[in-house]
Amino acid sequence: MTALCESTTPLASKFDSTLLTASSDVFKEIDDYTRLVDLNANPIEQLNRQTVVDLTNATNNLLDNIDISSYNTLSDRHSQGPLTFVEIADFIVSNNLDIDGIFSAVSEWSPTVMGNDLSAPLDSYFGDLDYYLNTNLGKSISSGLCGAFTNIFAQLGGLFTLISTAQELIADIKNLAEKDPVKLAKSLTLTAVLKKIKDTVLEIVDKVIAQLMKQVEGVINSLTGMAGELKCAAKSAFKHIQQAANQIKEFFDEVNKDGLKKSLEKFMAKMVAQFERLTAENVALMMFRFCQLTEIIQELLTAPVDGIKKLASALTIEQAALKSAGLVETKKAVEAGALRLSSDERVKNIETANEKINEEAPSLTEVAEGASGNYECPTCPNKEEMEQVAGMDENGIGGKFSFEPQVVNQNDFEGKYLKGAGWKKVNEEVWFKLLRTIAQTGTEVKINSGYRSPGKNASVGGASKSKHMTGDAIDVRVSGDYKTRAEFVVAASRAGFTGIGVYSSFIHLDIGGRRAWVAGEPTTPSDYPVPRTQTARWVELVSRHDRDKLRSV
Fold it and tell me: Has residue 332 been placed in a domain?
C-alpha cells in the first residue's frame, strides 16, 4: 500500500468555525502522521526492481532532451534534480499503470526520428506524471523543499539520484547500497544531514504561516476597502470574516506553532528510527516521505485560510452583482422619466443632513443636565472603524480603550479553550458603538468585563440571562466625577447602546433590548451601588435613556 498526500483530507476537513482553536482536534492528531505517511510502504518492492531503475533512468534522460514546459509541475520538479526511483515507482503503483508498456514507449523515442514531438503514449505518460506530482508534491516542489532535499542527499555521493550518462547508470541500487550501510549511517550523522532536513522542514512551518497571515490581513483590508460601497451590508459580512480571522490568528499563535514543530520533530525522529539500515534506497524513500510530509503541513495550514478567502471572494462578487443590478434598474427608471440620484449622492445628502442635525444638537453636558434634542449616529461602520476593530489585539485599540487582565486572561468559552475569549468573543457591533461613544467624549476607557462563559458568569454573580454570555455586552471603567460619567452615558445612548446599567465603579453597555438600571436603587441591589447622593440623578438620567430621549425629542 502506498501513501498519497491526498490522505491529508481527513485533517483538512476538520477546519470549520468550531475547531479553529488552540484545542483543535487537529493538534491532538498531529503526532500521528504515520497514518498519513506510510513509512514502511516501499513502492519499489511491489514492482520489478530492475524495470523501475531502467524506466527512471530512461525518463530522466528523455526529460533532459525534450521541451516539457507545458507540464508545469513536472518541469519544476525536473529543474530541481532527477526524478527518483521511489517517485516513479509510487506513481506507477498508485495509478495501477502498466510499467512495461510505459517503458516501451519511453525507450522507443529517438530525437533523430521524432525531434521534439511526443507520441500519444508519451504525452499521456507525462501528463499523468505531471498531475501526480501536482497532487502529491505540488506545494513542496513549488516551495523548493523537495529540491532542497535533492541537494542535501546529493552530499551522499548521489546514491539515490540518477547519473546522466548511460554508461554510469545504476543497474542495481540494492547491491550498491549494501556495500557498507554502517559507514553510510555514520556519514549521515557526521555531515548533519538529518539535522539539515529537520531544520528545512521547520522553516517551512514559519514560512507558510507568515505567508498565510499576510493573506488573512489582505482579506480584511480588502473588505474594509469595500466598506464605502457595502454600507450596512458590510456589518454582517465584516462580523463573519472578522470572527474567522480571529480564529485563524488564534490557530497560528506561538503556542500552537511551537506545539506543531515539536510534533514534527518527534515524527521525524520516528521516521528515521524505522529504517534499520540507511541504504541508498531507504534514503531515497525517506526523502520522498519528507516531501509528502511538507505537503501535509502546507495542506493543514492552508485549509482554514482558503475558507476565509473564498468567503471574501463571494462577498466581492455579490457586491458587484448587486451594484450592476442597481445600475440597470436606475437606467430603466431614468429612461421612464424618473429623477434618480446616484448612491454616492444619496449617501452624501444623508451625511450632510445628519451633520446639520448634530451641529444643532445640545452638548453632552446639556443633555446630562436635562436638555433634549435630536442626534443622529451612523448605524453603519465606516472604513476607519472597521480597520480599528480588525487591528484590535489583547491591548485593545490604542488611544481608545484597553482591557483589564481578567478580560485578556479568560481562556474558556462554552466549555472549550480560547485564549482571550473575554474580548475575542465580543460582538463586533459592540466595538463599533463603543468607538462612536468615545469619539463623542474623547475619553479613553478600560474594559473590565466582556464575554463571559456560563461558568465565568456564574462565578462573578452575573444575571442568569446576562448579555455577557452572548458577547453582546461590556463593562466599562470611566474615570472621573458624576459629570464625566453622565456625559459618557449620554454618548453611549446616542451611539446606539440599548442596555445601560450604572454601577459605582463601571458602566454596563449592551446591544440587547432597551432598558436601564442603577445599581443600589431599591429594585436593583448590587455589590457596586452608586453613591446615595447620586442615585436620584442617575435614575432620572437612565430613565430618559429607557424612553430613548437622550438622542431624540
Answer: no
